[in-house]
Every structure is written in structure tokens, then in C-alpha cells.
């Protein structure tokens, strides 16, 4: 792969990552409600989903799924159902009057759950799969014997730059969180916002 091609890919990847989207919106909301560390963990989960989709593109599974209307429908339903379950949990947390806690134990107990949430949000989203199926091959000569390795390199590159940008967003949101932490009922409000964001993403997944 030529260096200019890789530079164009990296530039496009950064711009796409910075563009407003469901991942950015949820990451921002989660970082405000749970802190920067939770946001960074969520970022790791989201980009792990990207690596998974890259693998599917490499081995040709993505193309098979794209050509199966049933597989696409099942992915949409599973993805939307998972997001709606998360939205319901956030809504219930808001109803219960749960307050934001700065206790280390409270945060660390949910890190694995947050990481898993990020992974599943992208793995169960067929739109992410279709995006990478269309995006990655544009920068690769598919007739080249090393095409699969080049796709892998591009996928990992996208994931790394995505993790860096997502982590910066999470850290900045975490700093803002510290400034507004003393606001009354902030925990409830952010739980409701998180629920609304997840519900909107789920409905968007089903409709479009």
C-alpha cells in the first residue's frame, strides 16, 4: 500500500470519527454520567466492535450478511432490542433517584459491563458492518495477494485513531462532569438523557 493512500485513509477516518454520530453522542452522555474512565472503557469496547467487523470483511462474511435480507433483519432486531433494554435500565435508574457517585468501587464494578456494552453496540449494528464493507475496500487493490492483510491494517488503524479520539472526548466530558457534579438531581437527569439517546439510536437502527 502506498503511503499517500494510507494518508488519505487516515485523514478520512479521523474526519468520520469526529463527525457527529450515535457513538459520539452516547460516549459523551456516558462520560458525563459515569466519568472519564467509564468513557475510555466504553471507547475500548466500541473500537473492539470495529475490529470484529474488519475481520468479517476480511473473511468475506460481511458480504454474505449484506446479501441476506434475513440476516440483516435479525441483526437490526437484536441490535435495537439490546439498545432498548439498556435504555430501559437507564430510565429505571433515573426513576429510582440514583445519584452520581465518585466512589472508586462503584465505578470499577461496572467497567467490564461498560466494555461489553460498547462491543455489543457495534457488533449488533449492521450499519457499522455495511459501512466497513463499503469503506475499507476503497483503499485496497482487491486483486493484490495481500489484500486481506491490507484490510486488516486499515481496520486496526481506524480502531486506534477512533480509540484516541473517543478517549479525548471522554476525558473532556469527564472534566465537565466534575464542574457540574454538585448540581441537584444531575444523576437522574443524565440517566434519563442516556435512556433517551439509547432509545433514539435503537429506533434509528430499525427505521433506516
Mean pLDDT over the full residue set: 81
Structural class: mainly alpha
Which overall shape is indicated by the principal axes computed on the Cα atoms?
Answer: globular
Distance between the termini: 35 Å
Q: Quote the beta fraction.
A: under 5%
Helical content stands at over 70%
Main beta sheet, described?
none
Discrete helix count: 10
Task: Describe the 3D structure.
By secondary structure, this protein is mostly helical. Helix content is 82%, strand content 0%. It contains ten helices and no strands. The protein has helices at 3-18, 22-34, 36-59, 61-66, 69-95, 104-108, 111-123, 126-135, 147-180, 186-207. Helix 2 (22-34) packs parallel to helix 9, helix 3 (36-59) packs antiparallel against helix 9 (147-180) and helix 5 runs antiparallel to helix 10. The longest helix is centred in the C-terminal third of the chain and has 34 residues, at 147-180. The model is unreliable at 100-109 (pLDDT under 50).
